[in-house]
Design brief:
signaling receptor activity, 59% helix, mainly alpha, AdipoR/HlyIII-related
Length: 374
């Protein structure tokens, strides 16, 4: 057990989970007691950190080192070099929670669920996204309507109403929603685990070990569930390829989680190996995307979703490069300790990529609600 565990309160279940057993040398019992019982918890420089907190030698100051759980939690409202990392993904979690609620409200879950006549565009700010219009019986009535910036809302509503009337006898079933909501859950899990890791990993070596594994699992979950809408809705009418692609990325993700459990995986010198693993997982999505274009290249939905997916890939790739290269702090060590270092930029790019894929998910639902396999 770690030294800190020796002085921790036996009634603290939160601390007992995170503490576990320390895997390396640490401070003496008297030093730990002083940190635990003192009223002031100061930020320290990189050189004063224990080895398990030394992740980026170009960020020189404003570190929290082996803080008690309570102080670590309260530091969410303080300024240190993890503040932006915590809040970017914490706010991102709440954004995706709101998008999930919006989608659940506006998109009928199954045939017969009442709707208010709203359409998917209510859940997106993108004026070019393909919309689906849902009637009061909750079924998809028509799609094939594209908002343009130079078209008035009244004209669009008129066209949608006409399309709905003409196709009232068309699709009578809404396509299954689980791949879309699995992706939203994967995104929220990733963002929440990342935020928690940055908030609490300063507590102890074991806490850092556990939380980093949850963080890696969250990244893997985001990548894996990103495939689900792409594969499921594209190959809705092709069970063989749908099952093949879904099984392949799920097994790949499980293997990545297993590898991330190895202690050596978090070594600073393996930063590029970690980035390469997740980048290869994401890049494997090119296979079903190319397949989609070969089969459905003439459909506007296939082209539009591919555009979103390429934009998502560009955001993620930029994030991987920034994360691995540790820029801009590499160029000016100490100048970006609080604001603007690579991990903060990485977080912003992850959120941008995840939101772009959410837009693609709305298009997939619109497409398959109109043209599903019966």
């Amino acid at each position: 057990m770690s030294d800190f565990a020796a002085v921790a309160s036996p009634t603290s279940t939160t601390e007992s989970f995170l503490l576990g057993g320390s895997k390396g040398g640490g401070s003496t019992g008297s030093d730990v007691g002083k940190r635990c019982c003192g009223h002031k918890h100061e930020l320290v420089g990189y050189e004063a950190l224990p080895d398990f907190l030394k992740h980026n030698e170009f960020v020189l100051d404003y570190y929290r080192s082996e803080w008690p759980i309570k102080q670590a939690l309260l530091s969410v409202f303080a300024l240190h070099n993890e503040t932006i990392n915590i809040w970017t993904h914490l706010l991102g979690f709440f954004v995706f929670l709101a998008l999930t609620v919006c989608a659940a409200t506006m998109v009928p879950m199954e045939t017969g669920v009442a709707s208010s006549g709203s359409h998917l565009a209510n859940c997106t700010s993108d004026p070019t996204v393909l919309m689906a219009y849902y009637g009061t019986n909750g079924t998809a009535m028509a799609v094939q309507a594209v908002l343009r910036r130079n078209v008035s809302a009244s004209v669009v509503d008129t066209e949608l109403a006409a399309a709905a009337a003409l196709s009232s006898s068309a699709a009578t079933h809404a396509v299954t929603r689980w791949p879309f909501y699995a992706y939203l859950c994967g995104a929220m899990f990733c963002l929440l685990m990342s935020s928690g890791c940055h908030l609490l990993s300063c507590h102890s070596e074991h806490a850092c070990y556990v939380l980093l594994r949850l963080d890696y699992a969250g990244i893997t979950g985001l990548i894996v569930t990103s495939f689900y809408p792409l594969v499921y809705y594209t190959f809705l009418c092709d069970p063989f390829h749908r099952t093949l692609y879904l099984a392949a990325i799920t097994v790949f993700g499980a293997a990545a989680v297993a590898v991330s459990m190895l202690p050596v995986f978090e070594a600073p010198q393996l930063r590029w190996a970690r980035a390469a693993l997740f980048a290869c997982m994401a890049a494997s999505g090119l296979v079903p995307i190319v397949h989609k274009l070969l089969v459905f290249g003439a459909r506007p939905e296939a082209v539009l979703t591919t555009g979103y997916e390429l934009a998502m890939g560009a955001f993620y790739l930029a994030g991987v490069v920034v994360y691995g290269a540790r820029v801009p702090e590499r160029w000016m060590p100490g100048k970006f300790d609080l604001f603007g270092h690579s991990h903060q930029l990485f977080h912003a790019l992850v959120i941008a990529g995840a939101y772009t894929h959410y837009q693609a998910g709305l298009v997939y639902l619109s497409w398959r609600d109109m043209d599903m396999c019966l």
